[in-house]
Amino acid sequence: MAKLDERIGFIGGGNMAFAIGSGLVARGIIKPSQVLVSGPHIENLEKWRIIGATTTEENGEVVTKSDIIFLCVKPHMLTTVASQIKSSVVATTREKDKVFVSVLAGVTLAQLAVSFDFMTTLKMVRTLPNTPMQVGEGCTIYSPGSYVTQHDLEKVDLLLNSLGLAQQVPEKMINAIGAVTGCGPAYVYTVIEALADGGVKQGIPRQMAIQFAAQTLLGAAKTVLQTGKHPAVLRDEVCSPGGTTIHGVHELERGGLRNALINAVEKATERSEQLGKQS
Ligand SMILES: NC(=O)C1=CN([C@@H]2O[C@H](COP(=O)(O)OP(=O)(O)OC[C@H]3O[C@@H](n4cnc5c(N)ncnc54)[C@H](O)[C@@H]3O)[C@@H](O)[C@H]2O)C=CC1
Ligand SMILES: O=C(O)[C@@H]1CCC=N1
Questions:
Q1: For residue 178, which atom of ligand 2 is closest to its CA?
Q2: Enzyme class, one word (predicted)?
Q3: What are the extents of the domains in the chain?
Q4: What spacing in Å lies between the alpha carbon of 265 and ligand 2's midpoint?
Q5: What is the CATH architecture of 184-277?
Q6: ipTM of this model?
């Protein structure tokens, strides 16, 4: 039994869209028949058809036939897409309660409003999701535009929260939080790979090393969330005086892991701001 009756549309069927769409279908939040996806080349949307979704090359069709419409193109495509869907938006959104959900990194609600200036009352929610939504462990932040009602927001919140954690935040925080949550999976995959490399260097078979490294990150993350303890306290619980771990931690500090992660978040935040200006 689907938990949401709304028809869900995706304009742009790439990685982020598929993480959301396939996650919703896999968890039974919606039925595949509720999903419509558009992209410029229908042959590239095969993975959507495999999960039972309908595909089209017409972005306007997604607007016309969906209730909640995810904008999932790259930021620089926003103006093009807005002009491609203009007539469908004008024809169908006035009388119907359609809600648009942008996942575009860096693009503000004000910039979205400029791109959709032909429909000044458009209901738009700006989000910054992440790809672990595909396995129901996503982390999404969102801010609603002026015309989004409480009822609309509850629907969008239900949908996003069904794939992990989703939380409303002041819009000015989205770029910085997104640099942690949206980009974070890429940093963490690098850490998993590197940790596994360490194991491989010590003679552990690659697949085994990856599985153990990933499970270790999962366990550590759950421990932080479930105990509520500061990560430094939990780290101290692992570091026996004169033991093995503190020798490893010393090497991480020497290698600048902490510094590198802080810099990564700073650079990604700055890049979000640049992307917004370019859209
Ligand atoms: N990949 C990620 O982890 C995250 C991505 N985002 C945002 O998601 C958006 C999409 O990023 P990805 O999925 O990573 O990129 P992607 O390249 O995988 O997907 C973009 C899709 O847009 C399609 N497209 C291009 N022009 C189009 C048009 N005129 N009409 C319809 N579709 C068109 C492309 O064919 C492609 O499938 C970006 O704005 C990005 O900032 C946000 C958070 C996380
Ligand atoms: O790299 C990007 O621009 C997108 C936004 C956050 C994660 N991926």
A1: 6
A2: oxidoreductase
A3: 8-169, 184-277
A4: 12
A5: Orthogonal Bundle (1.10)
A6: 0.99
